[in-house]
Amino acid sequence: MEKIVLPEIKDLHLIEVYENNGGYSAAKKAFARSTDDIIDEVKKSGLRGRGGAAFLAGLKWSFMPKTTNKPKYLCINGDESEPGSFKDRQIFEYNPHQLIEGILIASYAIGANTAYIYIRGEYHKWVKMMQKALDDAYAKGYVGDAMKATFGTDFSCNIYVHKGAGAYICGEESSLMNSIEGHRGYPRVKPPFPAQNGLWGCPTTINNVETITNVPWIINNGWQKFASIGAEKHPGTILYGISGHVNKPGVYELPSGMLLTELIYEVAGGVPGDKKIKCVIPGGSSMPPLRGDQLEGIRMDAESLKAAGSAIGTAGIMVMDEDTDLLKVLLRIAKFYHHESCGQCTPCREGTGWLEKILKRLASGKGTSSDLDLLITVANNIEGNTICALGDAAAWPVKFMVARFRDEFEKYVNKEIQLPVKNKVHAMRGTAVPLADIKH
Ligand SMILES: Cc1cc2nc3c(=O)[nH]c(=O)nc-3n(C[C@H](O)[C@H](O)[C@H](O)COP(=O)(O)O)c2cc1C
Ligand code: SF4
What we know:
- The strands form 3 sheets. The chain has a 5-stranded mixed β-sheet, with helices on both faces. The protein has a 4-stranded parallel β-sheet with strand order 3-2-1-4, with helices on both faces. The protein has a two-stranded antiparallel sheet with strand order 5-6.
- The termini are far apart.
- By secondary structure, the protein is an alpha/beta fold.
- The protein has 3 domains: 15-227, NADH-ubiquinone oxidoreductase 51kDa subunit (Rossmann fold, 3-Layer(aba) Sandwich), CATH 3.40.50; 231-321, Ubiquitin-like (UB roll); 326-438, de novo design (two linked rop proteins) (Up-down Bundle), CATH 1.20.1440.
- It has helices at residues 15-20, 25-31, 35-45, 57-62, 88-94, 96-110, 124-139, 147-151, 173-180, 209-213, 215-221, 223-227, 260-267, 302-307, 326-340, 346-363, 369-382, 390-404, 406-413, 435-438, and strands at 73-78, 114-119, 158-163, 204-208, 230-231, 234-235, 237-244, 250-255, 277-281, 290-291, 316-321.
- Strand 5 and strand 6 (234-235) form a beta hairpin.
- Helix 16 (346-363) runs antiparallel to helix 17 and helix 16 runs parallel beside helix 18.
- Iron/sulfur cluster binds next to helix 16 and helix 18.
């Protein structure tokens, strides 16, 4: 596969440097074209969402109603709370103006005069950096009313940075909107979908930070060029976040569809001590884990990962070497989703607690082989039966980790290993269910 080496531009986060490198010229070009034309360009580029579901960005924009007497909104999702994902913050830090320019173009295309950049509560540093970039863009007349004169257009857009309060669930698009509205971050039942009934009941589009940051490049270079990069059905570059047992962890911008093994061994420098890989989670902690001995030929794009029994998610690749205790890993993941469940629906509220409890029982050496089946049953009963996809996010790692690494988990059943469980099993939120009841 052809490798693209992107020039590293020093201080690109500064507005003058961004301007000197062609910054805000894509917005000017876009405003001179029709909104349908821009949507069409993004559709043809094949740009897919980088926030988890890999949905086609142009198609999503086309769902926005053309005629409505309500205001329309754009929300940029920078909640980035999925364990293993740390790429959007690179954009806030190193390339915030390309995000702002992307927001202007996307807002124009969908007819939104207001956009929000929702940033995760813990990202204090990046909230400040993004706000500084936005202030500079306002001062230069690229955002707000002044942009009409700057770009010679009738269109204007105000952009606001909205800081979350540190809840993973607020990354789910409908609870993100509730959070912006000042309500508790509860996901909404869909339909209606945001394009019909979003922020304050008005048509709204929600896109990930990285998705929107691709847009100025597409306008400047044309859809054909974007579509020619990387995997045919999932084109463009991707910010791969590689962490865990690799020599050079980090975020790497490279074409989509890279071989997972190439990313781990060549880009991220391989595994410390040349140890074997036991497990890889390819797209953030909620994606189905892959066995280390079955990575050959798997590429980092939506189609290839689906065929391999996983998904691209946020392209946050977590590498675990042969010495990793997978029960420890899974218990940590299960605890996270249990803690982050908003509690609205029973399968997720109760099921995530049961998963954690059963895993703790296995870790303490009191588990049985049937507990392994029980984990899969509970996960199956959560999956697809909840208001939002946090239920699936909690179910998948458990279901697939246990099924794909059963041998590892049997070691606990056979008392070959026992984890020191430091924390007592906490009572679950809502109605506490006695463990004995789960078995019936
Ligand atoms: C529990 C949960 C958490 C999510 N967290 C994020 C997040 O932090 N950032 C993000 O972009 N998408 C997140 N998503 C996906 C969003 O709901 C939405 O699909 C995405 O922002 C759409 O952007 P895209 O089409 O550009 O990928 C999350 C989904 C769920 C169910
Ligand atoms: S699936 Fe979980 S997080 Fe999502 S609405 Fe239901 S209880 Fe809340």
